Amino acid sequence: MTTETDVADAIIDRIRITADVKEKVVIAGLIRTPFKSPGGEQSCSTCIYFHPRHEHCGLPELDFPVDPDWWCRLWRL
Ligand code: SF4
Fold it and tell me: Which GO BP terms, alphabetically (predicted)?
């Protein structure tokens, strides 16, 4: 059975092998709006990787500026 962690690991593995930021954005599925999930709204502002002081994604494989209202498939609480 494939878990959410398996999917996230597969996405991260794909992001790791490219240096192209645009390609990383596409693979991560970054969107410029919050994502409405059955459990509530998700956005960078509520993700464990978000650094609010610098509005930056701290996930090492992404490591770029993001807006608090954006979202990607690697969002985690
Ligand atoms: S992992 Fe995704 S949702 Fe989380 S801060 Fe980075 S870009 Fe935003």
Answer: aerobic electron transport chain
